[in-house]
């Protein structure tokens, strides 16, 4: 099984708490002995994971130069779902998906995964090209959500959106110039929210596949939101509607 390197306290602690058996070894800064580090070491040792105190140079190498906070874990790569069909076929409730069109910043991807996890989204979908990969930075920013929310990449995003519609899932895009706001639109439970990269927005081909375009009201001086913030707004609005719907 492939090995990945997780770095940062949130990512490593989340993996130890949820899938400790997948962690092969934890490397910690030998010069750091504060309470946060002691707690992490105690958690790893309680799970039977070997902890090695190493120098900062090795941590930098394992984390590929990213900011690691003095902790890196070698762990088996987690496979959450092999395909979007696998995700959808296993659901017991209407699908709630987040589709990212042209989001190439791994920090934004990590933040979107974290938001998706919080809102109970079933997957984050992106094209294989022009998209951030699920590397160490995205995993760290996701704070454990990379292990709980499937990140599914597809060869042809437009075709995938057509296939979602064939399954009865509405494809709803967020666009600043949309004629209706998120709070005015009638949006079904089964929905794939499509967000574009900050600044560029949705590509024309993606926009054409949307059943509906809605805008997020901007009442201040800023013209738009960061994509992860926008993802939080739309996903939690869908979740709010589900929670407030009358019980059958």
Pick out its properties.
single chain, 248 residues, alpha/beta, Alpha/beta knot, 7-stranded parallel beta sheet, 4-stranded mixed beta sheet
Brief overview, please?
The chain has 248 residues and is an alpha/beta fold. It has nine helices and eleven strands.
Strand fraction equals: 15-25%
Give the overall average pLDDT: 91
Low-confidence stretches: none
Number of helices: 9
Biggest sheet, spatial arrangement of strands: 7-6-5-10-8-11-9
State the domain count. Answer: 2
Share in helix: 25-40%
Biggest sheet overview? 7 strands, parallel
CATH superfamily of the largest domain: SPOUT methyltransferase, trefoil knot domain
Which oligomeric state applies?
single chain
H/E element order: EHEHEHEHEHEHEHEEEHEH
Question: Helix/strand/pairing class, anyone?
Answer: alpha/beta
**Rounded Rg:** 20 Å
Ends: how far apart? 45 Å
Description of the molecule:
With 248 residues, the chain is of the alpha/beta class. The protein folds into two domains: 3-76, Ribosomal protein L30/S12 (60s Ribosomal Protein L30, Chain: A, 2-Layer Sandwich), CATH 3.30.1330.30; 84-244, Alpha/beta knot. Helices cover 37% and strands 22% of the residues. The protein is built from nine helices and eleven strands. The strands form two sheets. A seven-stranded parallel sheet has the order 7-6-5-10-8-11-9. Helix 5 packs parallel to helix 6 (136-142) and helix 5 (106-119) packs parallel to helix 9 (227-244).
């Amino acid at each position: 099984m492939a090995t990945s390197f997780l770095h940062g306290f949130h990512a490593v602690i989340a993996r130890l708490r949820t899938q400790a058996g997948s962690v092969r070894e934890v490397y910690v800064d030998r010069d750091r002995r504060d309470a946060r580090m002691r707690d992490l070491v105690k958690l790893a040792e309680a799970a039977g994971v070997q902890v090695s105190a190493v120098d900062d140079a090795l941590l930098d190498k394992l984390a590929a130069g990213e900011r690691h906070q003095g902790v890196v874990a070698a762990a088996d790569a987690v496979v959450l779902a092999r395909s979007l069909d696998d995700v959808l076929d296993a659901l017991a409730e209407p699908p709630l998906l987040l589709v990212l069109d042209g989001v190439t910043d791994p920090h934004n991807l990590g933040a979107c995964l974290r938001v998706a996890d919080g809102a109970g989204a079933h997957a984050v979908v992106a094209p294989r090209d022009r998209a951030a990969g699920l590397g160490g930075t995205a995993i760290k920013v996701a704070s454990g959500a990379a292990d709980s929310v499937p990140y599914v990449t597809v060869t042809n995003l437009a075709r995938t959106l057509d296939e979602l519609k064939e399954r009865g899932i509405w494809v709803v895009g967020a666009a600043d110039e949309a004629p209706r706001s998120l709070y005015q639109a009638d949006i079904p439970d089964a929905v794939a929210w499509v967000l574009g990269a900050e600044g560029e927005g949705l590509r024309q081909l993606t926009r054409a596949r949307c059943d509906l375009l809605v805008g997020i009201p901007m009442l201040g001086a800023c013209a738009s939101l960061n994509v992860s913030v926008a993802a939080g707004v739309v996903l939690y609005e869908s979740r709010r509607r589900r929670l407030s719907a009358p019980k059958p």
